[in-house]
TrEMBL record:
Coiled coil: none
Record keywords: GTP-binding, Nucleotide-binding
PROSITE patterns hit by this protein: RAB
Taxonomic source organism: Blepharisma stoltei
InterPro entries named in the record: P-loop_NTPase, Rab, Small_GTPase
Protein name: Uncharacterized protein
Domain of life: Eukaryota
SMART domains: RAB
A single GO molecular function term of this UniProt record: GTPase activity
SUPFAM superfamilies reported in the protein's UniProt record: P-loop containing nucleoside triphosphate hydrolases (SSF52540)
Length: 84
């Protein structure tokens, strides 16, 4: 049986979430900034100790969407509230 883990990349805009996503999925890197529209999702399977581990990677847009994601996940969280 292959274990599956969901990895959601969240953070402020322009910090490199999409480049980290592309490095993990496609093993590429670009210095050019391209705004993420909505969300990108991809699967990546790696073998560790001869066992497969599947990652479902989510690349999200930054900024406004993060505030609401934190509010949904942790309604009492004041993480980065002053910034927003």
């Amino acid at each position: 049986m292959i274990d599956t883990f969901k990895v959601i990349l969240i953070g402020d805009p322009c910090v490199g979430k999409s480049n980290l996503f592309k490095r993990c999925v496609e093993n590429t890197f670009t210095e050019e900034y391209q705004k993420t529209m909505g969300c990108s999702v991809s699967m990546k399977t790696i073998n560790i100790n001869e066992e497969g581990i599947k990652f479902q990677l989510w690349d999200t847009l930054g900024g406004f969407a993060i505030k609401h994601t934190f509010q949904l996940l942790e309604p009492t969280s004041d993480v980065r509230q002053q910034h927003w």
